[in-house]
Queue: 4 jobs
Job 1
Amino acid sequence: MDGGAGAPVRSASAPGVRSARRPPPQATGVSFMNNQKQQKPTLSGQRFKTRKRDEKERFDPTQFQDCIIQGLTETGTDLEAVAKFLDASGAKLDYRRYAETLFDILVAGGMLAPGGTLADDMMRTDVCVFAAQEDLETMQAFAQVFNKLIRRYKYLEKGFEDEVKKLLLFLKGFSESERNKLAMLTGVLLANGTLNASILNSLYNENLVKEGVSAAFAVKLFKSWINEKDINAVAASLRKVSMDNRLMELFPANKQSVEHFTKYFTEAGLKELSEYVRNQQTIGARKELQKELQEQMSRGDPFKDIILYVKEEMKKNNIPEPVVIGIVWSSVMSTVEWNKKEELVAEQAIKHLKQYSPLLAAFTTQGQSELTLLLKIQEYCYDNIHFMKAFQKIVVLFYKAEVLSEEPILKWYKDAHVAKGKSVFLEQMKKFVEWLKNAEEESESEAEEGD
């Protein structure tokens, strides 16, 4: 027999002794699992929340419209109350699905049919932009309603932009008063950043442009926009969406000129916008002039042909000579590959500029043009360090070639220079300026003796 057979057997329930592991009966296991399912542990006071979007009532557009219109009618014309109603309703109503219906109601008072008309059999409300007073203060208040709504429900941003683009295409279907209100509202919303300037693309619709609707709408829009900000802020917004050079497209092709644009908007009280467009047109013309100049120089066109072309562009685009000489200088200096060695670049520059002196001389017929050229030379020599020692040599060359004259050189030396490299360039010019002064005094003495 095994030695452990005679050992006393301890009870399974005896303390300190682990009982043998036995699998629980099958029935007991099932009962245990069911019991676990039925009696989940819970924390006291715990609430199981349903996501808000699951709580929202699903309506068709007509039912959604009825709910919004009923709520707006109850709030009345108190726009603070309207904003609170819209904020609260977003938790129950499906704004995401019916954004277009919501914005149609807030702007026009009901759902809009294609073309911008209200359906006769639909409910309407007078608590909307089109039924409000036609003044900037009221439109500013409505802008706050839209601003609060979209800040609260960020997903409405895209839907609102799409709505405004659609409304702009529907402009012919609205009355003049409704268009004016929408224009003022849009201007304020552009100013406060609720809308992006890209929505203005809708105004370039051929039919709206042809009938003059776009230009008239733009007058009201820009007035309210500039009233909220200024022309610089407006210009920056237009530039971001590459629309700063497209404003003349508000008019038909046969009227797309700077003269017509400035006359129309100046008479409408938007002189700052007119000046902005004129400046933009001039900047564009200058860029085009420089590009064409460089191409003509690289082809080696005769100077007489280049001069004729530049003078025609000056007249056509009203570009003053001091501006043109800066363009010609930049073009001349960009047509050559400059030597990297300082001791050689001066000689190369003199040879190159001597060749182009007749071209430069054609556009320095005014003292201001000569002074502009001197400043351009100073800035160029400072910005391109290899030219630091070449400044005086270039000025002397241009003096001898009659591109520059005594008076502008003396004025530059005295007080018209800029800070860039001032001490170096003034020192370089000291002896030449003294010589010019003496020559001028001698000429005056000779003139007096002749008298």
Job 2
Amino acid sequence: MVQMENHDTSSTTTTTTTSSSFSSFKTYFHALSDTPHRLARRACSVSTSFEETSRVRAMSGTDMKRTLRWYDLVGFGVGGMVGAGVFVTTGTASRRYAGPSVVLSYAIAGLCALLSAFCYTEFAVDMPVAGGAFSYIRVTFGEFLAFLTGANLIIDYVLSNAAVARSFTTYFATAIGVSTKLRITVHFLPKGFNEIDILAVALVLIITLVICYSTRESSLLNMVLTVLHIMFIVFVILMGFWRGEWKNFSEPGNPKHPGGFFPFGASGVFNGAAMVYLSYIGYDAVSTMAEEVRNPVRDIPVGVSGSVILVTVLYCLMAASMSLLLPYDMIDPEAPFSGAFRGGSDGWEWASNVIGVGASFGILTSLLVAMLGQARYMCVIGRSRVVPAWFAKVHPRTCTPVNASAFLAPSMWMLSLVFAGRYDTLLDFIWPSLRFLKVWFIR
């Protein structure tokens, strides 16, 4: 928050050209001493949609190429949402909260995600820039809340991507039938931080090179991986409906446990919906591609909303498939689908390896989309001069935010090497929704 002041506190911002606070140590420390005064002036100052799409966008130098169409956005949305999370959250939600009615939990969560996606769509069409939630909040609630949201987004992306990269190693080991975790144990390091994951680091490095090379090629790679992943999901769905028993929708494995389609009542359905909503996180990253879409007015609504609807249908069918394979009280919360095949289908233990392959493809696509999104968030935060403008630069040859990607990648390498964590993402979805209510009320 010690960057140069480039506009006043009025809602219609004007700019003054001054040198960057990061140009030298002298100017930086001078700006640091002036932080209280600058914070008071900039905290509630807002930008405008016109300014974000003109002067602020020009700070990147080269424009990002408009190469994406609606089907690219659908692919990014599906790839970003359908990761490995659905293979875990479904079991927990069914076993502890909703039972067989977890199907309705996914439908309710999908409706909530769709309403949130409408908010992102509205703003992405009105202001097709790469900043996503950061830009939407900046033009409505001011720079301070935008700064908090941007910091939360970057921390969330880096930590969760590191965790996802490490989880790839586990699922890949399951897919190839290896019992070990494919990690190197270093005994002199503290427990919990002593399993070195070289495969996760290599995965992050490869994806970084891909997203720096070209957004269009990244979309093609995501499309291929997403199609392969959906093929495995369809396999799980078909096997569940073929090998499952309809009585499992109403009869528990233990007669002492509550039975029926709603064993935990209506509250269980909504508690389950709150649990499985995490499986829909990822559609927000699609809004960061708005600057690279050929026809934002047509392609963004179809891409974002269409991907959420498609994923909701897949999730509901997957939940129904799992519920058919086993009674809800016999589902393994940690590995529901592979456990269902082992426990409910004689001779189908090999299907758990197939599920591991499918989950591996899902991890690759969700990591690819998330890394694309985090680089664009960092790029636009750099345009606002809250961080050095170096992050805002777009490479003239590749037309991608190479600087932002190159800065965030080493952080993920170090975290994915020894640590896996997750950060709360609630605020990232609340503020754009509040902004939508404010704009709608004013109109």
Job 3
Amino acid sequence: MASHGNDAARDTYESKVPPFYYRPTFSDCQLLREQWIRAKYERQEFTHPDKQEPYSAGYREGFLWKRGRDNGQFLSRKFVLTEREGSLKYFNRNDAKEPKAVMKIEHLNATFQPAKIGHPHGLQVTYLKDNSTRNIFVYHEDGKEIVDWFNALRAARFHYLQVAFPGASDADLVPKLSRNYLKEGYMEKTGPKQTEGFRKRWFTMDDRRLMYFKDPLGLPGLCPQDAFARGEVFIGSRESGYTVLDGLPPSTQGHHWPHGITIVTPERRFLLACETEPEQRAWVEAFRKVVDRPMLPQEYAVEAHFKHKP
């Protein structure tokens, strides 16, 4: 850099970055930033495309530590990613012929969550099963390995979207490869009749899906549904009858936390409460960003499914 300058160094060391490869920002976790630097300067992956095979080949298999649903322990599991089948699979035993789960690339998202998972290389993979959101939590001791998995998943989604949207540019597709959650944290909620007491739940805002869980990693051991979100709320646009209000209706009782939020949908009102005013403001801002954004055509189909959920 001293001899050539920053721009010239970038032109050299980033000359062949694949469009799907994640370029971290200052707000990303340390692992992503470190591995970007190592890939660029130490391994020179973006000047020698043959070094990109671990995440560019369209097929990847290996072992990751996966958090168990029943006891919360991390166990070694075999994972197979295949673009040809459009899926990520994992197997409970090395010799198993049938996978324990099949995650379709079409609906898959991956995001690093080191604090939540309790490991600096922790990756959260989210997918849909029977149109309900399910999470798995994995890590690898080797930082390069888990980042290669992350970028292999992004590559698979990129190639899927290229086929699904043949006229779209790379710039249109890249933002759809993976996404960080708009907001996460604890809030209190009450049920649809708004007569029962409020209960503390962990909420995750994933685009237009607001999901809640017993705790950040899901509650192990009680029932098979614990791997899924306990509930989901679709948040549409203002033009479609959705809005977010500060506070709760005056007659509301049973909440321990004082800072309320009311989400108004065409069907009902959802009452939530935050522990602190800054948390309430942050949640309201996240909700309003979604509500103020016009809905895409495919989002109306998602909304229709939520309306017909039992």
Job 4
Amino acid sequence: MIHSLFIINSQGDVFLEKHWRSVISRSVCDYYLEAQRANGNDINPVIATPHHYLISIQRGGVSFVAVCMEEIPPLFVIEFLHRVVDTFQLLDEMLDNGFPLATESNILKELIKPPNILRTIANTVTGKTKLVKGIDMLDSIDCCIKLSGMPDLTLSFINPRLFDDVSFHPCVRFKRWEAERLLSFIPPDGNFRLISYHISSQSVVAIPIYVRHNLSIKTGEQARLDLTVGPKQTLGRTVEGVKLEVLMPKCILNCVLTANQGKYNFDPVSKILHWDIGKIDFTKLPNIRGSVSIASGSNTAEINPSINVHFTISQLAVSGLKVNRLDMYGEKYKPFKGVKYITKAGRFQIRM
């Protein structure tokens, strides 16, 4: 179980720590900070040290690092850390210009309105494209419930075999899930996460977007960059919110590029090229190309940028998960039922 929690700011300082079982020295965070310095924001969420496991998330430039003494399902800890951050965000509603405003839980529930659909299934693509057989996927089923009385719900799936490493909301009857592979529960009111889970890496998952990339060195101080983005196996769904972050090595001085879609900028300090594409036009695939300046005397053999890809696809679950039916018992009225599938890129990285 979780022994300690450390919260680290963007400068690498531990400004808050909490210990439950035993006090663990904050020096254990050095393993995390070392990985951060080596990989930037692309940090493995699970870091094994000689005596501990560090499980972390990053939100708003702040790192939340949980320390465990033994192996534990990482999804459980990651979900807990996200809940901690969501709880902190309630401070915006509880204080008005520094003065206590809303402190009752019922009032806070009214202030934070849930979305106007009954079910939201959010599938988050994780992993790296160098994995060709399968990609581990971190998914969740989010609910918005506005039902009177005490309805008893059952949610079944066409292919429940896809579930792996499942974390349940307390309202779910675990024994029935174990026996029948369906979700039986009496839901709380409002917006909540019903389950979080992994899609097994043994399942075949098609990446719904591709990036063709080429970085060719012309001279010792000049190179040409060419990137093209396109949809792949999206079943005709529109790929939206497409953004690319190209993490350049330190020897790159500047980028002078031309994009046929969207806008780009290069930060010479962080060495990150941002390309905000938006929606992919099927008739004219997004492309960006141009020259890249390299510092003189650099070892060009070590120039190997990586690309972080962000996108959203509505009404598509690339995991293949499908809802079979939702039934309600214990109440006589007929409820409105809705399911929305969303695929979002989480940690999807391409190595050039």
